[in-house]
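Me: I keep going back and forth on a fold encoding question. No explanation is needed for now; the record alone will do.

Assistant:
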Amino acid sequence: MKWKLPVFLIVIGLGILSKNTILTNFTMEQQLTLLLLAIAVYLWIASPLPSAATSVLLLACMLLFNLADGVEEAVIGFLSPALYFIFLLSIISHALVKVRIDRAIARFLIKLSKGGPRYIVFGLPILILMLPIVLPSAVARFKILLPIINRLNQYYRFGEQSLFKKYCLYVIGMMNQNATMIIFTGGGFPILASQLLKDYHIAELGWLDWFLHIAPPLWIGLIIVALFVWNYLKATTKDIDWDERGGMIGEIDQNKDPISPLFWVVIGSFLLMIVAWIVTDQDQVPLLLPPMLLVVFYAFPKINLINDQVVRGYDWENFLLLGSSFSIGILLEENGTAHALANELINIVPQDAGITLKVLAITLFVFVLRFLFVVPSSAMIVIFPIVISYAELIGIAPIGLAFLVVMIIGGVMILPIHSPTTFYAYETGVFRKNEQYKIGLFSSFIVIVMAVLAALFYW
């Protein structure tokens, strides 16, 4: 593996220096930017270095290639409000978990379980589709729900690789990650996407505006996929009379401790933050202000849910990764590299092609690039400026194409590494490889189809 990086860089470098390549249409600065982008993509995909070191190396390369006038310009990506929005919501999610929001979720599922496993099969997807509103972190949702699913599987006396458990793991793994896009406060990826829409002057969407744009097509797609997954697993999993099994409610119904008043204070203040996002104008009340105040509120001595230890435990490697990715994305836009790439891209599609063909062409382009990236946020930062430049060149409404990119990048879940929760679900050993790939392919295909239809007829 160690020899692949220098060979890769040499090949790219020779391609850039060659006078007989398509890159002669790019300025020297743009060629060096493409070299930086190639290095970044390789490091993000192959991961030969820890992510923190990769982020620092990319910033250093910007200086070594003389693509930034100084350190301040190289680290400009760390000034993005999206970075701090992700940080604040991660800290708030920690507070929600600390007041045992899992108990409220568990009690809801236990009540459903008394009606038999069919109630869980129908109820769990609905819960997952709504849960991002009150619990932004997809990983937190997975970690809360996994032990509950395991206990319910034991309660119904199913095996470790039962139909019930496989389906529920699909819901809290793959479907959970897709559902996080319904609101721009639903996790790091949608926060990042909403910031890019604002930075590129496409639209400044409020909380409700984002929801109305993306939730309907996404929910329709995810319901179709859920029905497919259930029937596919039912046809391929040896689990006879699964819905007739049951037992006495035992271990999972033992915890009857009353919910503390602090829980309602925390949940109430969190919902108040969401209301503030819905009813206030972002020009008058910055989007970051409500979560900033909420973090301070949770740190009050009588609440004491956020302290220095919580902040130290934050995923700072991801912070560095996103910050360096933002710097590269800004560089692509400011020195015209994204626009130059879009010009090359437009030459692939016939000039007299209709809007549908052009949308399908850009869909294929986004899908291929997304498939290469492990981290969807990095894919978004690299792909977004190129696609938006393409939209301007061919006359497609930028907001439609922007949401097309969001849904494709957020919806591709073919490989386990394409999202954290998909990886965690696969690591349980419940899914076989062929099941993961088939479900991932179908899920990705349906989400992409819904994105194309929405781009053509809804957005």
Remarks:
- Residues 1-12, 16-20, 246-250 have pLDDT under 50 and may be disordered.
- The two ends are 44 Å apart (CA to CA).
- The longest helix spans residues 207-236.
- The CA atoms of residues 62 and 68 lie 6 Å apart.
